[in-house]
Fold:
Amino acid sequence: LDDEIKKLPENLFLRIHRCYAVNVNYISGFSPEEITLINGEKFSISKTFQDKVSEKLLSSVHDKIIEGGEK
Structure:
């Protein structure tokens, strides 16, 4: 999976486990341990990736809030 992940756009895909990654455009919610997709499916975030996932998603939320305030 490492080689395949490197081929994907870094800003669109987020690795949440050693066996899978998700498209950030399909994430509807998250907690430190779990991602929820817009179709309701839930995926566990492995401990290895929890800090990085939280950091990226919180940064993304922050950026959207800032962009929304500039309109």
